[in-house]
Amino acid sequence: MCGVTLTDKEDFDLLIVGAGPAGSFAAELLARGGAKVALFDGRPAGEPKACGGGVTSKALKAYPHLLDAAGRTVSEVEMFSPAGGRVRLSLRDPFAIYSRTAFDSHLRERARSAGACIFDVRVSADFDRREGEPWTVRTRDKKSAWRGRVLVAADGANSPVARRLAGALPNSEMEVAFGYRAPLPRADEAPTVIAFLPGWVGYAWAFPRLDHVSFGIATTQDAFDHRALDELLWDFMIGYYAQREDDSAPLWSAGEQRRGAVDKKLRATAEEKLRATVDAYAARIPGLAPETWDARRVCGDGWALVGDAAGFADPVTGEGIYYALRSAELFAESFLAGRLDDYEERCRADFVRELRRASEMRERFYGEFFGAPFTSRMIDLARLLPGVRRTLRELVAGDQGYLNLKRKLARRALLPF
Known about the structure:
The protein has an 8-stranded mixed beta sheet with strand order 3-5-4-10-11-12-9-13. Strands 1, 2, 6, 7, 8, 14 and 15 form a 7-stranded mixed beta sheet that branches. It folds into 2 domains: 12-47 and 100-169 and 289-364, FAD/NAD(P)-binding domain; 54-99 and 172-284, D-Amino Acid Oxidase, Chain A, domain 2. The model is unreliable at 4-9 and 255-262 (pLDDT under 50). The protein has 12 helices and 17 strands. Helix 8 (321-336) runs antiparallel to helix 9 (343-365) and helix 11 (386-397) runs antiparallel to helix 12 (405-412). By secondary structure, it is of the alpha/beta class. The N and C termini lie far apart (59 Å).
């Protein structure tokens, strides 16, 4: 029986609020381990999460069942510098791009098959627990309620549950992602593109899925200017489609290569088609400061945070799916071993050190390096040097961290392969 009201005597072992990758994967592993799990999915049916949907080869190798979800595997990526320089990377280990509706549904159904009880309701953050008793969570209208020994926040970067349990994150430690879902060009003319922004911290992407292209920009909250960035994103999208007609067309209209070189008619035609068909989305992504990584708690007496709700996302790229899955796995293992208090230390030992280092590196990664943006230098060198291209491939795959990135780039700049 999966339904529980306030007058029922039946309790759950865990109440997991949020059925994204972290919540659903935790629910699956816990249910398979014999725990009685309630998983709350408050997202309206069919509403996709605002996300590029890229899943690194590191995540696919760690969790090969992800390949069972309907998605597109990618073996080549085009990367652009802020000035418009381009390098094509052939990936040794492909990554995948998913519609988040399909991806999240796949993980949620795996949790259901494992025995987790899934409730398609939005619960209130007005939960409570008396000393020595289980947690009680309720629907917003307070007509239904459920009890459980452990409460888990898996409801994303804006998690109201995490705010109650661990405190709110400041706006300065949030990044913004927004974009558009747009028509898919012919399959053989829909490249995967990552382009570092001219004049801004962050990057734009074009991720072709099975039936559309996800375009987006990720940048910091503190410097966010929606109007200016939206114009930049439209410029990027129009350039993407213009390049399908003329490969020599620069991606950014403001780029140096653009001067007198691009057929304005191509761009005008692409813009007219896009304006009539795109579907907008937006989301926030955690990008924690080093001090917050040191101080923020992700578990306590009968509670835990996983995935974005815990702040587990790469502060440089915003990538969070691998960390959502890994934190869910570490949490499930800790709970099933009867050592919930070990969860936080296991996360710190496993991946938090790398994320903290990424936070320290963010300004330098998007900053100046010998008179030009570091991202420009990195791509310009990759166009010339196989060793640097190799490092970039590993960075895209999720296998190259930030702890030794510049040192490895410098060393490999001298390698012939």
